[in-house]
Specification:
By secondary structure, this protein is of the alpha/beta class. It has 9 helices and 11 strands.
Length: about 280
């Protein structure tokens, strides 16, 4: 099990310099990763919001060990060739420590409708799949062309290519028990699951077992490494109970524990103190 912090890119703590300092604190305090939301404006249009890719690039040059990533990027609202350039740059700056988390984008109003974008689930899903194909082609550093329903790329070659080989890992987010996101995730390198039975909630270990079993069915015969990033909460005070809680999820198939710090997004001191308290291990 590896341990990362899961931090909103909006709120009173979400200034780029502060987030970079928090990533440095996370590395010093023994965390394995720093994963940043990639919302375009947050639920409150007046909350401070930072561009996730810019902040992660700054984190990349100020850290040496921890993995950095987005949780998650709504590719359907972005130009995939621009994302290819930005993510390759972060991967190179970090010497191969970047993971791209992707999803449809939630909530649709906040991420799409507010800016005049089509928010229908079918369109967002189709754009996501096309964008992922384009990213793989452009990340390769080889000559590439693409023609889809929503995106097209004339014959081109992006250099430099990514530091990681064969490419940057892609984790796909989804709300269980909605199945399509998990079939999509099975094709890639990892999954970020949440409970979507009545709005997004954290999973229970029994939920995670179901998620892992379903994905394994779709990955039958695929022996490549696959990460299961579970989002959860621990006290940071009672290490024994925190460790027991995390071990339940590890037993259910989680390979990453992402400590959610969403409730601290408007309290910089509380956010920093929890990160400095270190991961929920003895």
């Amino acid at each position: 099990m590896k341990y990362g912090v899961y931090v909103a890119n909006y709120g009173k703590a979400a200034f780029a310099r502060n987030l970079v300092e928090l990533a440095v604190d996370a590395e010093i305090s023994g965390w394995d990763g720093f994963f940043l939301w990639d919302s375009i404006s947050g639920e409150d249009k007046e909350l401070p919001t930072v561009d996730a890719f810019s902040a992660l690039a700054a984190m990349a040059v100020n850290t040496k060990r921890i993995r950095l990533g987005t949780t998650v990027t709504a590719l359907a609202r972005l130009r995939p060739w621009r994302v290819a350039r930005e993510t390759t740059t972060i991967d190179n700056l970090s010497n191969g420590r970047f993971t791209l988390g992707v999803g449809l984008g939630f909530p649709p109003y906040q991420e799409f409708e507010r800016f005049g974008e089509d928010s229908s689930k079918a369109v967002r899903a189709a754009k996501l799949d096309e964008a992922l194909e384009i990213l793989v082609g452009l990340w390769s550093g080889k000559s590439f062309a693409y023609s889809g329903e929503y995106f097209s790329v004339g014959r081109t070659r992006f250099v430099p290519h990514t530091t990681q080989k064969p490419r940057i890992p892609v984790w796909v987010a989804g709300g269980w028990p909605n199945k399509p996101p998990f079939r999509r995730a099975a094709k890639w390198d990892g999954v970020i699951p949440l409970n979507y039975s009545n709005g997004f909630k954290l999973l229970q270990p029994t939920d995670l077992r179901s998620v892992v079993a379903y994905i394994n069915k779709w990955r039958s015969g695929n022996a490549s490494k696959f990460d299961v990033a579970n989002i959860g909460w621990t006290s940071g005070k009672n290490k024994r109970r925190d460790r027991e809680k995390v071990e339940e999820f590890a037993g259910a198939g989680a390979t990453w524990w992402l400590e959610t710090l969403y409730t601290s997004r408007n309290d910089p001191a509380k956010l920093r103190n929890r990160i400095r308290g270190g991961p929920p291990v003895s």
